[in-house]
Amino acid sequence: xxxxxxxxxxxxxxxxxxxRDTLFLxxxxxxxxxxxxxxxxxxxxLLTGMVLLWRTHLAFTNAPLPGRWLPIAVLAVAIVLxxxxxxxxxxxxxxxxxxxxxMALKTLELRARRDAFVVFFLGFFLVLTHFFxxxxxxxxxxxxxxxWGLLTALVLAHMPVGQPSLRQAGGLALRTAALGAPIMVLLxxxxxxxxxxWGVPQDGLASTGLSNSLSFGSVAELAVDDRIAMRIRxxxxxxxAESMYFRGPVLTRFDGNEWTPITTDFPLPMARDTLEVRGRxxxxxxxxxxxxxxxxxxxxxxxxLPPVEGLWTRRRDDMTWATIRPVRERLRFTATAHTGYRLxxxxxxxxxxxxxxxxxxxxxPRTRAWARAxxxxxxxxxxxxxxxxxxxxIRTAGYTYTLAPGAYGETDRRAAFDxxxxxxxxxxxxxxxxxxxxxxxELGIPARIVTGFQGTDTALVDGYHVVRQSxxxxxxxxxxxxxxxxxxxxxxxxxxxxxxxxxxxxxAPGLLNNALDTMSPRFVTQLRALWETLDNRWxxxxxxxxxxxxxxxLSQLGFESPSWQDLAKLLVLTLATLALLGAAWxxxxxxxxxxxxxxxxxxxxxxxxxxxxxxxHAPPRQLAAAVHDRFGTPGAxxxxxxxxxxxxxxxxxxxxxxxxxWFADVRTETRRLRSAARTLAAETR
Length: 685
Known about the structure:
By secondary structure, this protein is an alpha+beta fold. About 50% of the residues lie in helices and about 15% in strands.
């Protein structure tokens, strides 16, 4: 069977309408599916691309669509591959995968308008699935483009007659969406807030960022992750940079290789009265990005936390704010911290003491010998003096703070501490903190690692202090009888600018960054600040729009003590008012018709004056023939005008509405023919 030749490309406007509309719809589908490419299995992305390309070829060649059995067979194969990839057909990833495949295969069945409607509404549903993965401004803007494209295709499907242009259909879709936008905004502002519907963890690699465990020496180089972890807006004067410790997981248990918390199980017992706050109170508002950990990194020391919407929190004895589940959505709340505190002055619990002293016997023999020698010189029963001695050793013994120290313990994991502390002396915060804790434990002093964030960006972004994943930090705490747990940060000894000035280490810049810095050293920083300002506004006023803000709005509208009942009453009243306005507009516009139908009725009235019957279903060509038969040569101008009407209504580049000039010519010719008919009748008499 010979293949149908591909239509010569003479421009978008010269394509047959079916081909043009199909190609436009395929482009919208491809745009909608494309952001999912990174989430889909490779086979799904390839299969979807092949189907869309094949359907594009069929549209260009005007070839027949395949039979129904082929899409069914491909769908069966896709189901099997989905089961192989995910071991289930249920859940987010399998569901999105099958939805994308169904969307592509349905384009092979565009035989009727109802098939097109199925594709449109599958597309609208596919747009929503993108927010399972990201709710950023970029994704929202891309999906707005998809919605506009699908609405345009829907408008084209409701204009089956003539050759409406894409510009005409797109403009109508845009105007329709603009009319609905105020109602959408109103419902967004006033509809009762519920918790986030989605938020999914994404596992990270060896990059800066908060973690629930620490493996000493296993990471040879850290990649700087500049994603935002938190935004802090201080309602009082902010504390100095060296006091901005945001406390995360406390790592006490050590198995010789990995440091982990003692427990993360729920339910947790309520913290005992072990935290004594001192100094100035600092009120702050925090917006936490999804950390994917069951913990909130709060400013030390935050003794109380107000209820966090949709999340159960509890402060543990180690001053960690634990959550019932990993934080997988953006949260915003206010809290109060204190610039000074004392953590537990009474006797340390026996189970915590045991874990805080535990050291496997075969780990770091040379470093432990060094620690015992230090204890003999300083006095092993004086933790404060020991801490001072270790800090002085770090300052004077040639240690280097670097993000690329190389891996330690590759040949013998037990010697990783020895290689770092006594040989190469290069590392980042985890190396210094873990070795500090090991030294103290060797001398019989309980010690542990605390992880979290330290410092913020020096420049405010939209009034907020920004805490990045690159500011994740590890420090140490040791137990001192009569005082409790005492913070010791060895990084302050080797890299004081990191703690006191929030100046993080940076990796060597790439070629593009070098070029940009050469042209404008501040360009990248300013561009990032602009983007993060927009992102912060998006987060604060869209993604984090909460019931508290709703109640604030009600207060501004005059409600003294806003409640859910007030919000519901206002919403119902507003919707009822809009419904009445809509009904009034429909009543006022009840006679509104398609402009071409109004023109047809007016034309019928004009021809009736000439004694011609012009039924609504009669095409202009038939009316032109009737005029010619009735009036002959004198009726030729009016017949020609009727043929012009046919071209403008049904030909290429059809007009959205009749031309006023054309109808004026019709009235002129009608009057002329009526006058000629009266003259002819008078002469006959």
